[in-house]
TrEMBL record:
It comes from Streptomyces milbemycinicus. It holds the Pfam family DUF2255. This is DUF2255 family protein.
């Protein structure tokens, strides 16, 4: 397992969206979908706007692998589920801060989707 470089963290952390392509069970990638991404320290997190019904999230949770592209960074990743309340509190705050300009209709569902929090780990 590798770690994100400072440049990768900055580029992805400042980008509005991340293209998410989880790995299917047959080893192929799903079609990429744009999602929001937040940074907390040296970690990157994503959540499903549709909660546990989100198709990309269900695939990512099943296989724990995929590919992301954002801010000029193109990387294979491992998805790690996050259940820690303190981490989720920080991720909530990161979503509120980064995406507040879009209003509560978009931000509130992301904050409410704590059960779908995934940490992106570069491979």
């Amino acid at each position: 397992m590798t770690t994100w470089t400072s440049e990768e963290l900055d580029r992805i952390g400042h980008a509005d969206e991340l293209e998410m392509a989880p790995l299917r069970r047959d080893g192929t990638l799903r079609v990429p979908v744009p999602i929001w991404v937040v940074r907390d320290g040296d970690d990157l997190y994503v959540r499903s706007f549709r909660g546990t019904d989100g198709g990309w999230w269900r695939t990512a949770r099943t296989t724990h692998g995929g590919h992301v592209r954002s801010g000029g960074v193109d990387k294979d990743v491992t998805f790690a589920e996050v259940a820690d309340p303190e981490t989720n509190d920080r991720v909530d705050a990161a979503y509120r801060s980064k995406y507040s300009r879009f209003g509560g209709a978009y931000v509130d569902p992301m904050v409410a989707a704590r059960a779908t929090t995934l940490r992106l780990l570069p491979r």
